Amino acid sequence: DIGLGSRLAAIVVRRLQGADTKKEKAENKDAVPKERKAPGPILIRGTEGMAVQLATCCRPIPGDPIIGLIRKGQGLLVHTHACSNIAKLRGDRVDWVDVEWEPDVDGLFDVSIRVLVKNQRGVLAKLTAAISEGQSNITDVSIERDHGTTASVYFTVQVLNRAHLARVLRGLRHIPEVIRIVRLKDKDLTHH
Fold it and tell me: How far apart are CA 185 and CA 21, in angstroms?
């Protein structure tokens, strides 16, 4: 399973270490317990394949605080700490794992944003130009006009990490027609 990419080696090692600890305790009931160093968090690159999946509900990107959920036969599902789905599962008996991003994660990650703008001619061109100048690619765009003078423009953009996303958002904020920008997560993703 590890070789096929359906299980993460670090999780298998932790489970085996846990089994060894239980076996040692049973064999050495009267012995002084050895001090074991608590395992550190599992480092995530986001490109591990089937063994590690990034949750589509919150779309974590490098730099986000993350937590892992072990699902039998499905590997490790990574969520942001702020994900509302995580809050719903906190009381359930679920295998949680401390995970962190590797310092040198390389790859593009999808992020959805909503940009509330004054509905004026040429504003979409300004928005797409700013995203492009921020060295980000747009993979999806949709517009929802309200009945007033504003419109919501929904973008899915590809970024390297939170710092890259912040640069893209900063570029958008400099456009005079932009009223508000929100990174979409969880329930917000279903509104467009």
Answer: 39
